[in-house]
Amino acid sequence: MERRTLLSAAVVFAGAAGGAYFLLRKPSTMTTTPESFEINKTEEEWRKILTPEQFNVLRKHGTERPGTSILDKEYGKGTFVCAGCDLPLFVSDTKFNSGTGWPSFYDPIPNSIGTSVDGKLMMKRTEVHCRRCGGHLGHVFEDGPKPTGLRYCMNGISMKFIPA
């Protein structure tokens, strides 16, 4: 009985420690491979044109806190563009309120994004990045509205809104 109690405590402790690591760790230091994109800048050059928050998300694959982006509540007519290179990404007609606290869209502008597999957080997700500069935008999920059934859950800080 003592060994079972000790083993149970060890499993609980390991689970709590692992969970705390994933919740409290710093953003990933993973960066995009510059030679695979049209726009290539050094880390110094990106830091000069982006705010520290934009740099963390776009270049270091961080995530902004939900509900902090003014773009989550932006429903005017216009276009959402990459904050790193101004490439048009989404038109306002494809934006919807997902209730997640991040700007969400059901369809990107053709030839505007790229995707890759993101294995962080102990699950596989599809990461979305700007196809021109490689900036991390967010993730896409298969729980969106018609007609695509997709939810492009984007970091608002990764984009700028250009009114029509």
Q: Measured on Cα atoms, how large is the radius of gyration?
A: 18 Å
Extract low-pLDDT stretches: 6-34
Give me the secondary-structure category.
alpha+beta
Q: Which second-level CATH architecture applies?
A: Beta Complex
Q: What is the chain-wise order of helices and strands?
A: HHHEEEEEEEEE
- The CATH C-level class name: Mainly Beta
In total, how many domains does the architecture comprise? Answer: 1
* Biggest sheet record: 6 strands, antiparallel
Superfamily (CATH H level) name: Peptide methionine sulfoxide reductase
- The number of helical elements comes to 3
Task: Summarize model confidence as the mean pLDDT.
Answer: 83
* Spatial sequence of strands, sheet with the most strands: 3-4-8-7-6-5
Determine the CATH topology: Metal Binding Protein, Guanine Nucleotide Exchange Factor, Chain A
Into which percentage range does the β-strand content fall? Answer: 15-25%
Helix percent band: 10-25%
